[in-house]
């Protein structure tokens, strides 16, 4: 059975369809996953693709059709509709599984409940082209499968217990190792991922735990005191801690962490479990965070305004900031700093928004601030666009003047809310459709969407901008020599470097195999030249891909929108200048094993 091809197939799509055709659904083990050999009846496999934000099935075995019927899904068509229902949980899970498998190149799986049945979905990335991503899919009805090693009842009971948690890890204190047993949310990493326990605890804390809770997290996972603390609990025989942890959107929410002894083969073993906190408990925790006896400062026991303000800022999921009468930042909460990838307030204080470069239309914000500061105007949920981590994000801004005791305006205070997903959902679009699944930056569609925004801003306000066309030198030779997996890692590393160094003020995307595009608002050719030099230096700073040392270079071509008449001419001019740069410098990309 061959994947159906649309019309006259372009050369650029051939490798994509060839990769799909190589998957033999009748083979004994296309997933290369041991448990798949143990199934009672034929392999329940299918090949599907995500094309322009919509899922469709290309192939499916009779075993797959038979299996989904046991879950209450009558046909492949109905399964396809379920995958495309953006309001369904299965849609969100498939999106995460596909993204994870694309980035890691490994099988991603998750357990779920459907119509009273416990089931498992496994996804393995196959290939992608400009508009589509193909993947291999297997669905298993765990409630009916008797071929697994454990008994049906015990397996179901264990999976039910696991499903109560976000993650479950097995900590071996004897060997200082950690093994992930269960992970229900694809956007989260394991608490501990192997290696020295203290080191991975520190790394996880820095990436995922609220700054005010990091010390508490480290103390809780102190391997030298865990057993002693559990013994001190007496009859309870386990320890727990409530900690604020990042969710999939980067917001902090309360999670309950639990560690319990798990003796096995005379080893000192512990189970670490993490799960959500219900709404009532969350409210109680917020209240406790804001009203701590050790922060009471007034002699009569009342809570000072300063303490209330500090706790409000720490708990808020809004990005709050405040400025002086000269429109310069004088402070912001952690949410605002994290949203804009700022490590501390020092990167913000004393600067105006136009100096930071993240506003697509800073002139509009300047006028807005001036009206607040001079006329006392209040702004409520005014929509706009910001550059965040190399992507354009839709935000709603609110701000109002700050008055002193005599009624004089001495500054302004505002907050932002990210409404990107709300905006795209209202248009029936998926965020995944704008994202390059390999690198996590914008794909061609996302870039074209951003380019249109920049063009509209130029036509309205003559706000000039530059496009930088970037090509990794000799990538094809490197890919052929070292294999696709290392090639993908190189591309991911280039994308990360560009976004990390330039993503605060530039839109960053990938439009082809080894081709990247950046957009930035500039004043003149001098600014464009500076960006070109910075891109080259950023790529040249990459010296290691996995276990291979490397020297990487890139060819860069830039063009200003004011030099051309439309976006097509802009793209062609930047591409042409990139080709001239490539032929002119004769750079080489050299890779060798350490």
Question: What's the structural blueprint in terms of helices and strands?
Answer:
Blueprint: H1 11-21, E1 45-51, E2 54-60, H2 62-70, H3 76-83, H4 89-104, E3 108-114, E4 117-128, E5 132-141, H5 152-163, E6 167-172, E7 177-183, H6 197-208, H7 214-220, H8 226-232, E8 239-246, E9 252-261, E10 269-276, H9 279-290, H10 305-315, E11 319-323, E12 329-332, H11 334-339, H12 353-356, H13 362-375, E13 379-388, E14 391-403, E15 409-418, H14 420-426, H15 444-461, E16 465-472, H16 475-482, H17 484-502, E17 507-510, E18 515-521, H18 525-540, E19 544-545, E20 548-551, E21 554-560, H19 567-585, E22 590-593
Antiparallel strand pairs: 1-2, 1-5, 3-4, 4-5, 6-7, 6-10, 8-9, 9-10, 11-12, 11-15, 13-14, 14-15, 16-18, 16-21, 17-18, 19-20, 20-22
Helix pairs in contact: 16-17
Give a brief rundown of this model.
The protein is α+β, with helices and mostly antiparallel strands and 594 residues long. The chain is built from 19 helices and 22 strands. InterPro entries: Biofilm_reg_signaling (IPR052155), GGDEF_dom (IPR000160), Nucleotide_cyclase (IPR029787), PAS (IPR000014), PAS-assoc_C (IPR000700), PAS-like_dom_sf (IPR035965), PAS_4 (IPR013656), Rev_trsase/Diguanyl_cyclase (IPR043128).
